[in-house]
Design goal:
Strand 14 and strand 15 form a beta hairpin. This protein has 573 residues and is of the alpha+beta class. The chain has 13 helices and 23 strands. It has 3 domains: 222 residues, no CATH class; 125 residues, no CATH class; 159 residues, no CATH class. Strands 2-3-4-5-1-10-9-8-6-7 form a 10-stranded antiparallel sheet. Strands 11-18-17-16-12 form a 5-stranded antiparallel sheet. A 5-stranded mixed sheet has the order 19-20-21-22-23, with helices on both faces. It is 25% helix and 26% strand.
Length: 573
């Protein structure tokens, strides 16, 4: 008999409205080999509900081979196995999937609503009821972090950068105790509540009501700075640009496309990776890398489309103590990419992360652009024929007497041994601390912003840093000591300027610009430096385009005419 007082934790997913339950599982678990086939039975009391149960995998434990090297053969009946089940439950005009065990390995992830669990969580948990939050900061290098509190806390205590961070997973205590004791989710929802098996329909009705509300817009308005793209024409245009960037890498040209795990990974466990689905087999890798993936595409002479990549290319992984490679992620879900598409006469900014395209909300974009345009511009270097940062630094050191090269000078603040702060790349006769970066290199431009902040803070607050800096300058160009502040006493901060110089290729229309998220991260750096009462300026240095005239950044930059306009994005509930 069902126990209504028992507290249970369920994993719940919501089928997309354009999918049927029969389309939600991979083919091998519906009509594949008998050992994988799931057994179906009706679920009493709910018309159309049915349960699928089966053995998802069975394998010999991976650690067996290691111990057998020393102690000999072990019993054959030692197995590592995983059972699973899914209950498809019609609720109103939607279908829920209640998942058990290892069934997630049998599910077609594209059949389910993205961010379903996240939205239910943020609609049901108050602002001060959060317990855990996973955040991702897309950039040329993507950073992910998990912050957990020992008790329910306000979201501002989690260190959220509302300008840059994407909420990936959230968990906390709902404000309605009869709904749940705890909820957490991203695509799937984990809900802990008192529940009997015959109360599932009622509980799912509550979950659906929570999903359909927009309470999160008042509690967590920053979530909508990045809105999920659903318009098919826009998605097709974005995927074409993604494929263009991938093709550029295969042709040896520049691209800001890179790969990142779509979720936080426990690297302590270690793993081996295989890229599969296009004839690649048996080549071991130890971490995600766009370079490795591109090399595999070339080795296997892949000549398919972006649809082939999205639907068929997988990353399989196994832990060191296992002999079995299991599907970990779709390759498409590991791409991180930023681009623009013209819509309704306006260039909209988009970012791909974890298999989902996001559109930058227009008011948010406008605010970022206004702040970016307000940063003073300078022209110290001007357009260059140098192809990269190293060439530019060498050229300036040889030809510009007004610039003192301090590139690769490393100074430790007082009491610190390995900070290795670089004061700047060049110190100008106008007391400008110039920090340079090739904006098309593999490293993030945000690293340049950080260098400027750390150097400025050390300059104004650390006498030992100033002493060591003067010592370096005196050995390179003694008259330049007059440009620097004294070792002791207050620094005349307004006399100095932090200048960021970023090498970029012009877009096809001739404009020079930065990627949107580089502008976002620049704002935080400018704010910190300006709080020191030190002026900040920016120079975007035009560098040569590729010789073939079709560089990857032009393929992803702000030009709509190359692919025509697409319809306005439509946000759908």
């Amino acid at each position: 008999m069902p126990n209504p007082e028992k507290v249970r934790t369920l994993s719940v997913r919501l089928l997309r409205s354009d999918y049927e339950a029969d389309e939600a599982l991979k083919e091998e678990y519906i009509s594949g080999a008998r050992r994988n086939r799931l057994t179906r039975s009706d679920w009493p009391g709910v018309e159309g509900a049915h349960l699928l149960v089966g053995q998802i995998f069975t394998s010999r434990p991976g650690w067996i081979s290691f111990v057998e090297e020393q102690v000999g053969a072990q019993p054959d009946n030692l197995i590592a196995s995983g059972a699973g089940a899914v209950l498809f439950l019609p609720v109103d005009d939607r279908i829920f999937a209640i998942c058990f065990g290892h069934i997630h390995m049998a599910l077609e992830e594209e059949a389910f609503e993205r961010q379903f669990g996240l939205k239910v969580t943020l609609n049901s948990v108050p602002r001060d009821g959060l317990r855990t939050l996973d955040l991702a900061t897309p950039d040329a290098v993507t950073f992910q972090k998990r912050v957990q509190a020992s008790k329910d806390s306000d979201f501002q205590d989690f260190g959220v950068d509302v300008l840059r961070d994407l909420a990936r997973v959230a968990g906390g205590t709902p404000n309605e105790a009869n709904f749940a004791k705890f909820v957490a989710g991203r695509d799937s929802l984990s809900i802990t509540c008192k529940l009997a098996s015959d109360d599932l329909l009622t509980k799912c009705e509550q979950i659906l009501r929570a999903y359909r509300t927009n309470t999160y817009k008042q509690r967590f308005p920053w979530i909508d700075n990045m809105q999920v793209v659903r318009d098919r024409a826009t998605l097709n245009a974005l995927d074409r640009k993604l494929f263009t960037a991938l093709r550029a890498l295969r042709e040896g040209r520049d691209s800001e496309l890179h790969m990142a795990p779509p979720e936080i990974v426990d690297y302590q466990e270690g793993c081996l990776l295989h890229y599969n689905g296009f004839g690649s087999s048996g080549t071991d890798f130890h971490s995600l890398s766009i370079e490795d993936y591109v090399a595999e595409l070339d080795r296997c002479e892949f000549d398919g489309t972006i649809d082939d990549i999205r639907e068929r290319h997988y990353i399989k992984a196994k832990a060191p103590d296992s002999d079995v490679f299991k599907v970990q992620w779709r390759v498409y879900n590991c791409f991180t990419f930023e681009t623009n598409v013209r819509s309704g006469g306006v260039n909209n900014s988009y970012v791909l992360f974890s298999g989902q395209w996001y559109c930058v909300e227009r008011n948010f974009k406008r605010q970022v652009e206004e702040r970016f345009q307000a940063i003073p511009r300078v022209e110290i270097i001007g357009p260059t024929h140098c192809r990269n940062e190293r060439e530019l630094i060498a050229h300036l050191e040889e030809n510009r007497a007004d610039l003192l090269c301090l590139d690769q000078v490393k100074i430790n603040p007082e009491g610190v041994r390995y900070a290795n702060i670089e004061p700047c790349d060049f110190l100008s006769n106008a007391r400008q601390f110039i920090h340079l970066k090739d904006g098309h290199s593999s490293g993030p431009i945000s690293h340049l912003w950080s260098q400027g902040v750390v150097s400025a803070e050390a300059l104004v607050s650390d006498a030992d840093f100033r002493k060591k800096l003067r010592r370096v300058v005196s050995t390179r160009r003694r008259p330049a000591l007059a440009l620097l502040p004294a070792i002791n006493g207050r620094v005349a901060r307004a006399d100095y300027t932090v200048v960021y110089g970023v090498m970029r290729k012009p877009y096809r229309n001739g404009d020079l610009d930065l990627p949107f998220f580089s502008k976002v991260s620049l704002q935080a750096a400018v704010d910190r430096i300006e709080r020191l009462d030190i002026p900040v300026a920016l120079e975007i240095i035009a560098k040569p385009a590729n010789d073939d005239g079709d560089d990857a950044d032009n393929a992803q930059g702000e030009y709509g005419e190359a692919e025509g306009e697409v319809g306005e994005d439509r946000e759908e509930e």
